[in-house]
Amino acid sequence: MAFLYINTYHPLVIKRAGRIASTALGLPPFVDGSIRREPDLEHPFPSISCLCRGDRFAPRLAEGDLVIYLATKRKYYESGTGPAHWRLVAALRVIDTFQSHEDAAAWYTERNLAIPNNCMVKGNLPNPLSHSHRYNRHSHRPEEIWLKNWDADYMARARFCSRFVACEPLHVDLSWNATVVHESDLIAVFGDVPGTRNPGKLNLDLFPKLMRQLGLAVRLSDQRTSPNAARSRRNTADPAPSDMRAARSAPPRSGCSPSHRRGPKRSRRGGC
């Protein structure tokens, strides 16, 4: 049985350095902001690994599951100011899972596809610091060591939990047109704001309800929606409250991973 999950991540523009990089280098503003894109939403077949959540998320995913990615709640504005909100940047369907990054790399290579940026295999280099939000616990070090240590942290997480997930995109928009999501939208669909740090299983039937609430023409039968084809009726950050409520979703489970081992220590600074 397939489930719906809602996850959050730190986009490039969450920090000033990332906003500068986006403008100067032409990088999508809502791409993941780390040196290893987690998730890698720029890939034709986006990928999810354990580089960010450790064994708390990717190992729980199975073929057919649907994952919605929201840029974590902040005041995202290309210009001007307004209330904090999320941005819905992707809806992904899981099409395959792998026990190791090497197996995943072989799968992509066999299909003549580039290896995703979050796949920790030999020869697959991280992005330079200049392409990141530079928000990391090693920022006090010289840049060469900073980059090396940041990537070493990711390698340690990949060794601790090596599950890798390949997806097909139902919808991806990494631009400033990415759909604005308000708290009222989530409450209208789920009855509450779902947990996203350790996402709980949600009924797949709630996906079309969320798309309707946000004015997005994305269906479960879709294989791909181009970044500019399915513009939301709300691609600005103006508040759009709703009084419509739905049944409360089940609370997320905390003991959801195959293992309860303690993985590599996460920094309080820089999230993933």
What are the key terms here?
single chain; 272 residues; alpha+beta; 6-stranded mixed β-sheet; 5 helices
Short description:
With about 270 residues, the protein is an alpha+beta fold.
Describe the structure.
By secondary structure, the chain is α+β, with helices and mostly antiparallel strands. The protein has one domain. It contains five helices and six strands. It has helices at about 15-25, 100-110, 145-160, 185-190, 205-215; strands spanning about 5-10, 45-50, 65-75, 85-100, 165-170, 180. Helix 4 (about 185-190) runs antiparallel to helix 5. It starts with a strand and ends in a 58-residue tail after the last helix.
So how many helices?
5
Give, in order, the helices and strands: EHEEEHHEEHH
Low-confidence segments, ≥5 residues, pLDDT <50?
225-262
Could you say which overall geometry the principal axes of the C-alpha atoms support?
A: globular
Whole-number average pLDDT? Answer: 84
Helix content: 10-25%
Distance between the termini: 29 Å
Tell me the strand percentage band. 15-25%
Q: Indicate the structural class.
A: alpha+beta
Count structural domains: 1
Q: Report the biggest beta sheet as strand number plus sense, adding barrel if it closes.
A: 6 strands, mixed
